[in-house]
Amino acid sequence: MKVGILGGTFNPIHTGHLLLAETAREALALTRVVFIPAGQPPHKAARSLLPGSVRLKLIQLAIRDHAAFASSDVELKRDGPSYTIETVRLLHARLPQATLVLIIGQDMLAVPWVAWKELKRLCTIVVARRPGARRARAARPGTPERAGETGLAWLQMPQVDIASSDIRRRVREGRSIRYLVPAAVERYIRNHRLYREGAG
């Protein structure tokens, strides 16, 4: 069994996330792709972050018609920053016979990772190329340069440039987010007046 792990804030989940998951599922012959929303992301300000339970609900609405997609609240149940290595260790213990595949965007190569070497040992790291992305540079002095690192697999996928921050801005401005998010997610955001206040 090959299990894909797709983490992030999903604030909100959008079509780009789903396209990434489906592309990885097909290209890598994944049995399942698990969407795992971060509780407290270590690399992003949580200024406009919806509660974890709401972001999880949006994920569940987005993936409900896909038999190979699942969600997990494992990071929402933990206190403190959501470090991927802790999630991977847990899944490795729960699914000892599974091959774990961590799916990340190219931009994430430029951020500092906790226990990077252990992460590479416990799972296959697959990097999706991002629209307009150039060779990743260190986010701060001392951050390893990983774009040319061996042991990473690269995923070719359609270049769809959608950002959660743009979706939140569109909602605040009263603009359409149709086709940027699944219809069920759009309805939930509208009916519950999400992202109407605050910045981000």
Order of helices and strands: EHEHEHEHEEHH
How many angstroms separate the termini? 38 Å
CATH superfamily: HUPs
Strand content: 15-25%
Bin the helical content.
Answer: 25-40%
Describe it for me?
With 200 residues, the chain is an alpha/beta fold. It has a single domain (2-191), classed as Rossmann fold. The protein contains six helices and six strands. It has helices spanning 15-27, 52-63, 84-94, 116-122, 164-172, 183-191, and strands at 2-8, 32-37, 69-71, 99-105, 124-128, 152-155. Strands 3-2-1-4-5-6 form a six-stranded parallel beta sheet, sandwiched between helices. Helix 2 links the parallel strand 2 and strand 3. Helix 2 (52-63) packs antiparallel against helix 6 (183-191) and helix 3 runs parallel beside helix 4. The radius of gyration is 16 Å and the shape is globular. Residues 134-145 have low confidence and may be disordered.
Q: What is the compact description of this entry?
A:
With 200 residues, the protein is of the alpha/beta class. 30% of the residues lie in helices and 16% in strands.
Features:
single chain, 200 residues, alpha/beta, Rossmann fold, 6 strands, 30% helix
List the SSEs and their pairings.
Layout: E1 2-8, H1 15-27, E2 32-37, H2 52-63, E3 69-71, H3 84-94, E4 99-105, H4 116-122, E5 124-128, E6 152-155, H5 164-172, H6 183-191
Parallel strand pairs: 1-2, 1-4, 2-3, 4-5, 5-6
